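Example record

One chain of 99 residues, shown exactly as stored in the release files.
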Amino acid sequence: MGNDDLVIRVLRDLQDRVGDLQDRVGDLQDNVGELRVETRANTSAITDMGGRLDVVEETLKDVAGQQLMLTKYVKHSIGRHERAIEGLDDRVTRLEDEA
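Predicted structure tokens for this chain:
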């Protein structure tokens, strides 16, 4: 009976270890499932952020275009005013010469 008891004890120990291993595998599967959910959420957030960055990029392009147009307008206005000022300078010079 000694051998049989030893075999039974070893088998029960193996059964306990297999049960523990199954519990660990179950825990790992749960963790993998949670990681998948988190990864999907992060991927979705990154995709949303990419869309937002596209909007920001388009807005910056629009602002740059408006700034370019404003710069051209200001340069044109300055040139026009400079010509008007030069014309006035010429008139004042002529009037001073006549006086």
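Notes: Helices lie at 2-98.
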